[in-house]
Specification:
The chain has 2 domains: 206 residues, NAD(P)-binding Rossmann-like Domain (Rossmann fold), CATH 3.40.50; 40 residues, no CATH class. It has 264 residues and is α/β, with parallel strands linked by helices. It is built from 9 helices and 7 strands, in the order E-H-E-H-E-H-E-H-E-H-H-E-H-H-H-E.
Length: 264
């Protein structure tokens, strides 16, 4: 299937690894030009080099931005070219007691997870509306509704993305622009791989045994009963970036293996 993404330019925040990088790969396979993003110049340079080696005929560049620093965000906004597809994927999290989590941790997660997408959308959405085409996607999480007790600040930020996304979608009425939210579940990113490896070593188990225990003891609501591959999430994101997805707007699309339950 041709997703009609040739000559489209996509900017993906937090895309030097994980879901972001996998999405860049699937978009490149469809002919899109890619702009990668990471926190440090070193991580971006490595990702761009790796990408060029895998996709020698693609157009790829990258910008390093620490979204917790307003001056770096302003610098990024001044350098970005015209964007057809904006994927707000960058995010951080911490695990700990609600009673011991400092205010600064709440503010930092909100600044990076939520305000990064707000600031980028404020700059990019008007240009999309003026040319009557564009795609903005916010990458949320199953934690927005499951809300693990050790990740309440993170869950708060992911729930906030749903409101921002829906509000922006309402600004696109009668246009060729769409704004949607993606809701991944437990996904086998590099971080999840490290979690499994560390837990396996600590508990004297195999990675497979740790993964099975996670879904039988922790994420029991999952219907998939395994970690999703980053490519499985990226495939859904890529479709929603395409002109073929024009009738999907203001929606939250689940790619969480059924973990959040319900019929909506």
């Amino acid at each position: 299937m041709d997703l009609q993404l040739k000559n489209k330019t996509a900017f993906i925040t937090g895309s030097t690894a994980g879901i972001g990088y996998a999405t860049a790969r699937t978009l490149a396979n469809e002919g899109a030009s890619i702009i990668l993003n990471g926190r440090t110049a070193e991580s971006v340079a490595k990702a761009v080099q790796k990408f060029q080696e895998e996709f020698p005929n693609s157009t790829v560049s990258g910008f390093a931005t620490d979204f917790s620093k307003s001056n770096e965000v302003e610098e990024l906004l001044s350098k970005l070219p015209e964007i057809d597809i904006l994927i707000n994927n960058v995010g951080i999290y911490s695990s700990g007691s609600f009673f011991k989590t400092a205010d600064e941790d709440w503010y930092c997660q909100f600044e990076i997870n939520v305000m990064s997408g707000v600031r980028l959308s404020k700059r990019i959405l008007p240009k999309m509306l003026s040319k009557d085409w564009g795609r903005i996607l916010f990458v949320s999480s199953e934690c927005a509704t499951l809300v693990p007790v050790d990740m309440i600040p993170y869950s708060m930020t992911k729930a906030a993305l749903h409101a921002v996304s829906r509000g922006l979608a309402q600004l696109t009425k009668s246009s060729g622009v769409t704004v949607n939210t993606i809701v991944p579940g437990s996904t086998l990113s590099e971080g999840a791989e490290r979690f499994l490896e560390n837990a396996a070593e600590k508990e004297g188990k195999t990675k497979a045994e740790v993964e099975e225990a996670f879904f039988t003891e922790v994420r029991t609501s999952s219907l998939l009963q395994r970690f999703a591959k980053v490519e499985e999430v990226a495939n859904t994101i890529t479709y929603l970036c395409s002109p073929l997805s024009a009738a999907t707007n203001g929606s939250a699309i689940k790619v969480e293996g059924g973990s959040t339950g319900g019929i909506l």
